[in-house]
Amino acid sequence: DGGITQSPKYLFRKEGQNVTLSCEQNLNHDAMYWYRQDPGQGLRLIYYSQIVNDFQKGDIAEGYSVSREKKESFPLTVTSAQKNPTAFYLCASSSGQGGNQPQHFGDGTRLSIL
Amino acid sequence: DAKTTQPTSMDCAEGRAANLPCNHSTISGNEYVYWYRQIHSQGPQYIIHGLKNNETNEMASLIITEDRKSSTLILPHATLRDTAVYYCIVRVAAGGYQKVTFGTGTKLQVIP
Q1: Would you say A19 and A111 are in contact if contact means Cβ atoms under 8 Å apart?
Q2: What is the pLDDT of residues A30-66, one digit of tens each?
Q3: A72: helix, coil or strand?
Q4: Cβ-Cβ contacts under 8 Å, A50 against chain B
Q5: β partners of residue A31
Q6: Peptide bond before A102: cis, by omega within 30 degrees of 0?
Q7: Phi-psi map region of B68: left, alpha, beta (phi>0 left; psi -120 to 50 alpha)
Q8: DSSP state of B84
Q9: Count of CB contacts below 8 A, A vs B?
Q10: Are A7 and A19 in contact (CB under 8 A)?
Q11: Phi/psi class of residue B105: alpha, beta or left (left: φ > 0; alpha: ψ in -120 to 50)?
């Protein structure tokens, strides 16, 4: 079935360590997004990519980095510069950018600090 | 994007229709109404969206009032697996990328 796969489901980071969250989609979507969700809060956009080899910062990009070398993949790296990385990270994709194109989400990666 | 208002929580008996209301009185003519739901510890699931006309798919029906100031999501035969937080949002039809922003949503509890 077509969908978005995020891995791992749970991830633990040590202080000063970079970690990379995987996001793969087989929906042939051009646009991909990374969000962060904190307990009891809504979604906050970290980065988005409209096309391969192009990506833009969202509202809270500091301490994060991304790449978009392939259409189906949009990995997120949480760097040691991100001082409060504990959160639920969600990857999404859509076939286009307009309001008539729903974003579809993966099942998330929960990141915790050791 | 226009603001939406939803009840904090609702209960529904299993097998009955669940009707979830959403108020979006400041919606613009080029804004779509979207519904998502999120089951605890899972990613949000897209349900349905519409502009003016009522919409139906395999999951639910969306009824939008003629003045577009409110809408209702209908789950025709609620099951225990429909217990989740349901989010109603509005999104502009055009203008480049748009992030998805959830409010507090409605926590639907389906009761056996």
Answers
A1: yes
A2: 999 999 999 877 889 999 999 999 999 999 999 999 9
A3: coil
A4: 97
A5: A94
A6: no
A7: left
A8: E
A9: 64
A10: no
A11: left
What is the chain A residue with the closest CA to B89? A99
CB A36 within 8 A of CB B87: no
Q: Which residue in this structure is represented by tokens 């349901």?
A: B86
The residue length of chain A stands at 114
State pLDDT tens for residues B69-112: 999 999 999 999 999 999 999 887 666 667 777 888 999 999 99
- Which residues on chain B are in Cβ contact (under 8 Å) with A48? 97, 99
The number of residues making up chain B comes to: 112
DSSP conformation class of A40: T
Q: Which of A30, A105, A112 should be substituted to probe chain B, the one whose Cβ sees the most B Cβ atoms within 10 Å?
A: A105
